[in-house]
Design a protein that fits this description.
By secondary structure, chain A is of the alpha/beta class. Helix content of chain A is about 30%, strand content about 25%. Chains A, B: Its EC number is 2.1.1.-.
Chain lengths: ~240, ~240
């Protein structure tokens, strides 16, 4: 059995009952080293296999091999495993290679949800998730989505907004949005949500400072109705008060 | 203190530790009757105030009044309270009316995440959430978003896809998407995710039958790369296998 677990943003408090139970029942825990570290208190002295960044395919093969050997394997992903996590790759490999492994997916709280609760209520209306990493997606596809989302007035959650080698992506995305997004549009940033080094701030589209955004950050750009009140970022659902 | 809690799709197993703790600590639980019923086993003999559908503003005022009187109030929402839930309305009222209430938001697993894990891994690439309810949103805004999302090849999660008085909305949305969405595009539907009456099925954009979709359903339309394999709906992240 291979259970692919979304552990949420990082703290045990934000994990689901299912995720905790699945971790406790596992024989072996597989994951990116940051994530296996986050669940350490729950794992005890179980076998833990950590792999580094960009080792996703290797990591999935390892987990599938172990499960095929009869081990109860827990693969940990941050947030939800089905959102830019490992659920897809696991299912792709298992179905394509007809591997003899039962896969179970356990949902988690993804970064946008955790960040939103820390900022106020920015996701109360239609929104989209866009990853600004072009490692696996051609940049022109990303561009098209950024422009479409801004033009149609979606609230936008940027995953992987900025990292080494992709320092300029967030600034480029903001440039693409500028024809439709007013400079006063609220923007919220949360870094390392639910972890020890958590930081958050709210600014505007026009005053955005990209330099403090990194790969652990989630950036939420409001829609035309989003406002800031008492330090909170709020997108009205549309009720008349 | 007023804690606005996302209880997830319905089962205790999919609630976070934080949500369970907040419910246990509360003096009084406020919510839409279906949701207070879902958490009944956790609530014990606490005071429970249920209100009906379309009573959102009344419900929020009730919760805020009780919290201002010094009660520890838990307001329960299905999924995540910050996604088409009550978090926004609570913050709108509290900030506008300068109410003397401390509000805490507890994140939950929203319907799209729970549905995705039941269908396979359809949300592995950029996606958006669109509510097809025009109770609070002009239909032309919804139309614009549906078309933009289809044109930019987002995976789309439809919330409130179809209900009494809005029987035709999902069919209309599909019509709007047709210029960009191929008939073979996989579509997944999950009804009452995580609850006793849970149902799910996978079909295609061209063969979609709207009649069995209701207001407890979540509909996910894939992007151009989404495929069906072994009865699972998978959107590749882009890894070369």
């Amino acid at each position: 059995m291979l259970t692919v677990i979304g552990i949420g943003p990082g703290s045990e408090a934000m994990m689901t009952q299912d995720a905790i139970a699945a971790l406790k029942e596992a024989d072996v825990v597989v994951g990116y080293k940051t994530y296996t570290h986050l669940v350490k208190p729950l794992v005890g002295d179980k076998e833990v296999i950590k792999t580094g960044m960009c080792k996703e395919i290797e990591r999935c093969h390892l987990a599938i091999d172990l499960a095929e050997q009869g081990k109860n394997v827990a693969m940990v992903c941050s947030g939800d495993a089905g959102i830019y996590g490992m659920a897809g790759l696991i299912l792709e490999i298992v179905t394509k290679q007809k591997r003899n492994v039962e896969v179970r997916l356990v949902s988690g709280v993804t970064a946008s949800i955790a960040a939103a609760a820390l900022l106020g209520a920015p996701l109360m209306h239609d929104f989209c998730h866009i990853s600004l990493s072009d490692l696996l997606t051609p940049w022109d596809v990303i561009e098209k989505r950024v422009k479409a989302a801004a033009e149609a007035d979606f609230v936008i959650c940027f995953y992987n907004p900025r990292s080494r080698g992709r320092e300029g992506h967030l600034a480029k995305a903001f440039e693409l949005m500028a024809p439709w997004t007013s400079p006063s549009t609220p923007v919220g940033v949360v870094k390392a949500a639910g972890r020890k080094k958590q930081e958050k701030w709210i600014t505007t589209f026009g005053e955005m400072d990209y330099s403090n955004v990194d790969m652990t950050s989630l950036v939420i750009v409001g829609n035309q109705s989003t406002y800031i009140s008492d330090g909170l970022m709020i997108t009205p659902r549309g009720y008349t008060l």
